[in-house]
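Sample intake — DNA-binding transcriptional ArsR family regulator
Collected from: Streptosporangium sandarakinum
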Amino acid sequence: MHAFDVLGDPVRRRILELLADGELSSGEVTAVIRDEYGISQPAVSQHLRVLRDNGFARVRAEGTRRLYAVEAAPLREVDMWLGRFRRFWEQRLDALATELARGRRERRIADGPVPGPGPEEDPGHEENR
């Protein structure tokens, strides 16, 4: 299965988001996914299997529990592939950052100087010593 076929499913993407915060048991993953998507435990297990079989997640046994974690290698490959296209959105993000900075600067100018504390409010002022 191609990486984008794996990542194309919103349930599998959500599972990876959960696992990105740290290792979780299959029961913990199932509880969240069942609440958010209304799917059964066997369906969640199938999604976990697809992630595991395609290298996006690893599993380890701890007693009777199965603990899942993100496997970074296939995500790095996806990131490398996306690198060819990153320039299309980075330029726009740079332009957005410029516009946000311009708006903040214009608001500061329009609001005028921020008044400091007067002598009666400034405990360090000579008149108040």
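Post-analysis note: Residues 84-111 form one domain.
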